Amino acid sequence: MTVEKNPKKIKDMFDDISIYYDDMNNFISIGTHLIIKYLSLKELNIHPRSMILDLCCGTGDFTAIISKFFPRAKVIGLDFSEKMLKMAKSKNPNGVFVKGDCINLPFHDEEFDYVTIGFGLRNIEHRDKAIRESYRVLKKGGKFLHLDFGVQNFVSKMFDFIVLTCVKILQKDVNHYKYLLESKKQYPIPELLIKEFEASGYKCIKKCDYLFGVISAQVMQK
User: From CA 97, how far away is CA 79, in angstroms rounded?
Assistant: First the structure.
């Protein structure tokens, strides 16, 4: 099965699940996804007064964590789902959020010290364009953080089973979550993603694995 990543269908899907997206993530992961996001952000060594762009910000987990633990940095969250952005704004009322497309960013060259993207790149139809855009808006020497699912192993398969079981019990849209699970199965492993990032000019400075490699973060530098 090949997952379709038509931008409109992806946007509609995230609009549909936005109202319960956070609750499902918290329930399925028992809150560990927030810890992992915090740990991955720490790897950036964010400096005060930095400019940070969070791509595919969704409901704003990264932006909320940055605002809480790195209050002197300025973070902008970008997403193409208005309903996800509405949820993000409710969690981080003082945050700055922009509706936009990752493959055509509304920012100048070398505008940001850091660019982050968590669990979003695999939903973009032309991820090569998104990677090049992230590189364009990042300052020379700036860092890019990518966080998403990693290797497929026994723990990963157990996670898939738990997700579908929870979705059915809670009577949420099974097809949407089937897509999300299938998309991670067809997503390149971290080592191959690093090669894609490097093809756009990045240099890998660190790879961090969590939960036996089920989740992986790659820190790249321009």
Answer: 8
